[in-house]
Amino acid sequence: MRIGSYESSEHDRENIGTAVVFLLIGLGVGALAGLLLAPKSGRLLRRDLKRGYEDARETLGEWADEAKDRVSEAKDRVSEAGERLRERGSELVEEVREGVRSKVEPLRRTIDRG
Predict the structure, then answer these.
(1) DSSP characters for 88-108?
(2) Which region, left, alpha or beta, applies to residue 3 given φ > 0 means left and ψ of -120 to 50 means alpha?
(3) Residue whose C-alpha is closest to residue 55's, from 31, 23, 21
(4) Whose CB has fewer CB within 10 Å in the chain, the N or C terminal residue?
């Protein structure tokens, strides 16, 4: 047995994510089994299943819309960052050119005189 502080790792986070996914799957299967085994008439059961399906579909649609919005925002931020990098790169190139010119010009004058 090791004694000391516990440090979580990426592997631990993956295990937690997997556990949450299986928990949600289990809850869904349990809810479906409960509906199918409940003493309801066929009409009531079909209505409940239809409502559950519509609710799940609506929720997934909302999640998809939110994901699209987040992707769009991230794309805009990446595009803006790229533009800033291009501008800064152009500025750096111009600074280097000016620095080279300032060093080369005196040498050129010396060569022309000599």
Answers:
(1) HHHHHHHHHHHHHHHHHHHHH
(2) beta
(3) 31
(4) N
pLDDT band at 5 (very low <50, low <70, confident <90, very high): low
Euclidean distance between CA atoms 29 and 23, whole angstroms? 10
Distance CA 76, CA 83 (A): 11
Mean pLDDT of the chain: 84
Amino acid sitting at position 31: A
